[in-house]
Amino acid sequence: MPSSDSSHRSRFLRGLTALALALAATTALDLGRPVPAQAASFTMYSAVDESDSAADLEQYGVTDAATVYDDWSLSCSTAGCSNVPSQSTFEAKVQEYVSLDKSGSAGPITLDFENILPVSATSDAQAAEEVSLWQELITWAHDAEPDAPIGMYSYDWSNAYQSYTAELYGGGYLSFFAPSMYNRWSTVADWESELSTAVSNDESIDSSLPIYPYLEAIWDTSGDSAYLSGDDWDTELKDLEASVPGAVLWNAGPLSDDTACGWLEAFSTETGGLTGTASSGPLTVTDSAQGTGCVMPSDAVSTVTFTATNDGTSTSAATEMVDDTSGPDGITLGDFEYWDIPALAAGGTFGPDTADLTVPSGVASGTTALVRLNYGTGYERVAVIID
Fold this sequence. Notes:
Layout: H1 8-22, E1 26-29, E2 43-46, E3 63-64, E4 66-69, E5 75-77, E6 80-82, H2 87-101, E7 109-112, H3 124-144, E8 150-153, H4 162-167, E9 176-178, H5 188-205, E10 214-216, H6 230-243, E11 246-251, H7 261-275, E12 283-289, E13 300-310, E14 319-320, E15 332-334, E16 340-341, E17 349-359, E18 368-374, E19 379-385
Parallel strand pairs: 2-3, 2-11, 4-7, 7-8, 8-9, 10-11
Antiparallel strand pairs: 1-19, 5-6, 12-13, 13-17, 14-16, 15-17, 18-19
Helix pairs in contact: 2-3, 5-6, 6-7
């Protein structure tokens, strides 16, 4: 069905398996992109299952969220609903998924029960049965996590049986929308059009409620194998920030080769801007890993080559590179070939220079780390994924 991701749960498991089996060392290096103007209160959430991934996206500035999947094969007809768990079983499962995603009671919880979406019903009677079951399950979810907002995944692609869906966004039931905005279309322009439709459908029910679209960094039209480019990801993020108050990164994709560099670079830059931790200072620093692309080996010392450019309108002050040991897991960036950066006239450049990035033994495969290339009067974020 083009409307919702009926295989969302299976794709989730497949994506995590690919992470475990195919993660290769990847370094996504921030290329000095200008940080865009940010929405007033945009939040980037992550629903990546951190128990199966060493990605540690929290360090980029994301906020944890949880997704609860249909582990019971729920089903409704005109005569009623089947495979419904007991309240205690359901509440325990909600808490289990919250624990996996580390969201705690403050993060949003999305219920992904695609077999009982009223929008897919074949009759009013079936839609009514589904709404009744949803109301029960949402109530139990609130009982399990009283402080967490609850949302429903992926109704938003259509307004069929919308009056039934609307019943779930009142009376203390659902408190946010969670449209599926994976890259199922052939172009970013198509994606932007579908985002507009989803937002319009949501706002027609309740324009006061937040909308948190679900995202992933791969094209869903190519067997989950092709990453979005940095420019495409940046375009989507900017479009989201202009339209909604937040988004949920559900799957970062199996970070297996250099094609992942672009989106991860854009992700690092964007989240840095959102959280006030973007690269800073009077210089623009462009950098790259040793060798091709951005792959970084584990248990090794690798070379980062960089150039500093004064993009200002006046001469920058002379400065000195600083050993910065603030990277997680003992990962360090320092030991520069040239320590002193001279004063640079507007438009002037310095470099190339090099620095050693050291990854100690024992760092788990798939670990990502943000380290800083510190040039004394500012710094550049360098995002690393360890093989």
